[in-house]
Give the backbone structure.
Amino acid sequence: QVQLQESGGGSVQSGGSLKLSCAASGDTRCMAWFRQAPGEEREVVADMRMDGSSTYTDSVKGRFTISRGPGILYLQMNSLKLEDTAMYSCAAVLAGSSWCASIRSRPYEFNYWGQGTQVTVSS
């Protein structure tokens, strides 16, 4: 059984930074950060596979960095924009690296979810 717990969200001005953490227990081979803004569909922000490879959605490339350590997943968010405002959730699935890369944009493929942490960016 995998359990995920996010932290680190909050309110920040445009251009600021936040670092999200996701404490994870269990087998977490394939992990990702998703976000969902009010009235919008959930979208993948970044994913990281066990081989260390990662992928970012275009809108956050160069600003966000995903990383992981034993039992924890991070999302460093720099140069935050108003449009980054959303509920951020980490998710995990028991998938190898290739499959993880192929399912990254399909949240329904992820079995385990945290409760989410709110990020609000203001002008």
